[in-house]
């Protein structure tokens, strides 16, 4: 089993306290550089971009719905990587309302879990084919208030990795914690990101936020 070495690729605008920041989390087997390429299709010309790289290209070794101990210590280490990144941005004066999280597949699951354990008013969450992590959801781990954070969460029906039922469970919890969730289930969609999902993400990224 493994833990993660800190390795974050940056792009976009230089960071200032007034920056909007998009944190992009890649999926299993992918790279930070590959998820950054998605930014070419998003309205983030004025954003600072951060993409952490998973050691061994995987944030945890087994399914996100496996018993939690099977994915340790990699899972806790991955969550710590995201927390270090976000708390570091906050420490440099960036408002949480200007921090956006985007992930695909395993990266969407990790982003879902991190954000729900540290709920606050983010700029937005874009969770392309993902949901909260665990064989059963441990609701005692979820803390805070999303305070109206816009959330886009998607999956295919069926999807080989992320069942519709887990997305629906995730939506219920996030809404109870104050998120404004847009859920999209695409019949027969392969394990990918559709143009419609990109369009919905653009709406979140283009919405006015704190300055």
From TrEMBL:
Tell me which Pfam families the record gives: Abhydrolase_2
**Annotated SUPFAM superfamilies:** alpha/beta-Hydrolases
Q: Name one GO molecular function term.
A: hydrolase activity
Report the residue ranges that make up the Phospholipase/carboxylesterase/thioesterase domain in this protein.
14-205
Reading the lineage from the top rank, the first entry is: Bacteria
Work out whether the entry's keyword set contains Lipoprotein. Answer: no
What are the UniProt keywords, alphabetically?
Hydrolase
Signal peptide extent: none
Looking up PANTHER family in the UniProt record yields: LYSOPHOSPHOLIPASE-LIKE PROTEIN 1 (PTHR10655:SF17), LYSOPHOSPHOLIPASE-RELATED (PTHR10655)
Give the family, as the similarity comment puts it. Answer: Belongs to the AB hydrolase superfamily. AB hydrolase 2 family.
- What is this protein called in UniProt? Phospholipase
Q: Which organism is it from?
A: Nibribacter ruber
């Amino acid at each position: 089993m493994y833990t993660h070495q800190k390795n974050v690729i940056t792009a976009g605008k230089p960071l200032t306290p007034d920056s909007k920041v998009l944190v992009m989390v890649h999926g299993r087997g992918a790279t930070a550089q590959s998820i950054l390429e998605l930014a070419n299709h998003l309205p983030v010309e004025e954003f600072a971009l951060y993409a952490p790289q998973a050691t061994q290209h995987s944030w945890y070794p087994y399914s996100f719905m496996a018993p939690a101990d099977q994915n340790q210590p990699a899972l806790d280490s991955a969550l710590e990587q995201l927390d270090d990144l976000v708390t570091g941005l906050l420490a440099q004066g960036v408002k949480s309302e200007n921090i956006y999280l985007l992930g695909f597949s395993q990266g969407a699951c990790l982003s879902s879990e991190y954000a729900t354990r540290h709920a606050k008013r983010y700029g937005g969450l874009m969770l392309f084919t993902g949901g909260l992590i665990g064989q059963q959801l441990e609701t005692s781990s979820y803390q805070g208030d999303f305070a109206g954070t816009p959330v886009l969460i998607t999956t295919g029906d069926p999807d080989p990795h992320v069942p519709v039922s887990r997305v629906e469970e995730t939506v219920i919890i996030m809404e109870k914690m104050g998120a404004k969730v847009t859920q999209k289930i695409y019949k027969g969609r392969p394990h990918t990101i559709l143009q419609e999902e990109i369009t919905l993400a653009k709406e979140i990224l283009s919405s006015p936020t704190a300055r």
